[in-house]
Amino acid sequence: MEISHSSSTNPIIFFSILILLFINCSARHHQTSDHEHSGELKTTSNFQLPNINPGITKICHDTDYFDVCVSSIAPLLKGREGTSDIPSVLQIAIQAATDKTKDALAELERIASDSGSSKQLKSTLNDCRDSYNDALENFQSALDALPSRDVGTMNSMLSACVTDFGDCDDFLDGFEVSLPDINRKLTQMTSNCLAISSLLN
Prior knowledge:
Helix content is 73%, strand content 0%. By secondary structure, the chain is mainly α. It has two domains: 2-37; 54-198, Butyryl-CoA Dehydrogenase, subunit A, domain 3. The longest helix is centred in the first third of the chain and has 35 residues, at 2-36.
């Protein structure tokens, strides 16, 4: 009877050990994953960090899109390499998003002037044009509120920009054009602006 009892419990012990090993491996995997996605490593493996002020990279680490933050700000630092205070970095980030919105408008006009674009698409582009122009006004209002550190107004204006880009995406649903990809980048850039503005408090 004792031999029979032992042979019946061995498989249970074996499978229990397997389950414990699986849980242990799974926990280690999640720890590694959490480290890779922590605020310390908000960058992709192939992203080459530009040679810019460490103060700016520190600010960008407080955003959701570190790569986008650094890569969009770096080109506008010519002559201002020593800049690292939050208001100045926010001003540059908003200017970068403004410039990118103007690029989106230029791409929109290129698509609209393409003889291969349908009438329906061209009509839809009019709605996106309004969204982009509205976003440009909102970015300017955010910049106007920066000297007085009116964070409430800046957040309202920047959030309105995110809505503008989302509206354009909704208008273009079903059309095969490049603008949604640009809108995704614009949304990330604006999200970063919101994150940096919160550091003013």
